[in-house]
Specification:
The chain is α/β, with parallel strands linked by helices. Helix content is about 40%, strand content about 15%. It contains 15 helices and 17 strands. The two termini are about 40 Å apart.
Length: about 425
């Protein structure tokens, strides 16, 4: 089996298996694989926005502290193997092929015994756990895929730390249509014996279920003190933060990312205070500074601006808009925008409208995407919009429009699927 054959075989598995939300399929799969999930310590991260960034910061800190640290994230942006990392290095193509074969063989055995085979995310998660166990990782930083309670990752024993990033309205058809219901699902990762670290500006409606889950698990809930968090003087679209004396110039712009940095510090301090893991102050600061992920308000070029953001829901677009406004880019930009059908388009467009003089709409590479024409019709209620035939053409049109109208630059945003398509094109544009 080649890497490409492995990826195609995983994509061929059902996105949502017939029997719906359950941990039984995942547990059966891991039982067939020798229960690799029991062979390393976990930091488990759930939430609506910011999970990947917090996971990257946390794993970077632990790596700099000298621990062998696995990281599994969802979704990937550029390369499928981004999902599987140890100490910042992706799994090799040969290892992906080998472990995929092993997981699919286990799935075949389950089906032959009359059981139900795994879905795609369950198989992917099993591959990650199998690799971390084989490589004898000290820690694994594990990002949930969807929700928490019935997420495939939630078969792990009680994690050392359960972290909950900001709760927002997303995947309402599965998780519930109130913040309280969604928070209750995310809180499913909170288990007895874990320390809980929570986003410092959590919506009030979401806090009740999180506090209840922590109380039921007989554990405390740690919330970073925003009085200890400062954003220090730096250039626009830079993020120099101080949290309780830990200082770092982050590679992620935005106040929300400063909050994630504070969470990462609290996770590291919890591992030291509660479990006596040695994590030097220098490792915390260097880990925060070196952490990176593509398409998180990523500045590809400063003058004229080229910026890429995978914001894919209302909270994500609000964070992008706030960051652009704070940096002084208020209405003097052009956007290339693509959205998925199952998102709150109206709220996303409402959030973004003040940032852009014009938007070129595109269709991201996903069966769930709106067409460029559908998005153009909806976007016209909020701003000047024009459908483009392709992502490459839209970027060309946007760059030319910004140049001809003396605007500050171009932002590509609205979906991680779009970010994956656009990033190679933006890198080439940035070199001109």
């Amino acid at each position: 089996m080649t890497e490409q054959q492995a990826i195609e075989a995983l994509h061929a598995l059902p996105r949502l298996p017939r029997s719906g939300a359950s941990l039984e399929r995942m547990q059966a799969l891991l039982d067939h694989l020798g229960n690799p999930e029991k062979q390393f310590k976990c930091i488990h991260i759930a939430g609506t926005n910011g999970k990947g960034t917090l996971a990257a910061m946390t794993s970077s800190i632990l790596t700099h502290a000298g621990y062998k640290t696995g990281l599994t994230i969802s979704p990937y942006v550029l390369n499928f193997r981004e999902r599987f990392q140890i100490n910042g290095q992706m799994m090799s193509p040969r290892t992906l092929a080998s472990l995929t074969r092993k997981v699919l063989d286990a799935a075949d055995a389950i089906i032959a015994e009359g059981g139900e085979g795994p879905g795609e995310f369950e198989a992917v998660t099993a591959i990650a756990f199998l690799w971390f166990a084989r490589q004898k990782c000290d820690f694994a930083v594990v990002e949930t895929g969807l929700g928490g309670r019935y997420d495939a990752t939630n078969v792990i024993p009680a994690p050392l730390v359960a972290a909950i990033t900001r709760i927002g309205m997303d995947h309402t058809e599965i998780l519930g249509d109130t913040l309280s219901e969604i928070a209750a699902e995310k809180a499913g990762i909170i288990k007895e014996g874990s320390v809980v670290v929570c986003y410092p500006e959590q919506p009030e409606e979401a806090m009740g279920p999180l506090l209840t889950a922590a109380a039921n698990a007989h554990t405390s809930l740690v919330v970073p003190d925003t009085a200890d968090l400062q954003q220090l003087k730096c250039r626009p679209l830079e993020n120099y933060v101080d949290y309780g004396g830990y200082r770092a110039l982050l590679q992620f712009p935005g106040k929300h990312q400063a909050n994630h940095a504070a969470m990462a510090v609290e996770i590291a301090l919890a591992l030291w205070r509660e479990y006596h893991y040695e994590i030097p102050d220098e490792a915390i600061e260097t880990g925060l500074r070196d952490a990176k992920m593509p398409a998180r308000i990523e500045v590809m070029r400063r003058h004229p601006l080229l910026l890429l953001d995978g914001c894919h829901n209302a909270d994500g677009t609000a964070a992008l808009a706030a960051t652009l406004k704070e940096a002084g880019y208020d209405g003097n930009l052009v956007a290339v925008l693509g959205l998925l059908k199952d998102k709150d388009h109206s709220k996303m467009l409402e959030n973004l409208a003040p940032c852009f003089e014009k938007v070129f709409t595109v269709m991201p590479d996903s069966p769930r995407a709106m067409t460029a024409e559908e998005l153009e019709e909806e976007a016209k209620y909020h701003m000047d919009a024009e459908a483009a035939p392709s992502v490459a053409k839209a970027i060309r049109l946007a760059v030319d429009y910004a140049d001809e109208n003396n605007l500050a630059g171009v932002v590509v945003c609205g979906s991680l699927y779009l970010a994956a398509q656009a990033r190679p094109l933006l890198l080439k544009e940035a070199e001109k």
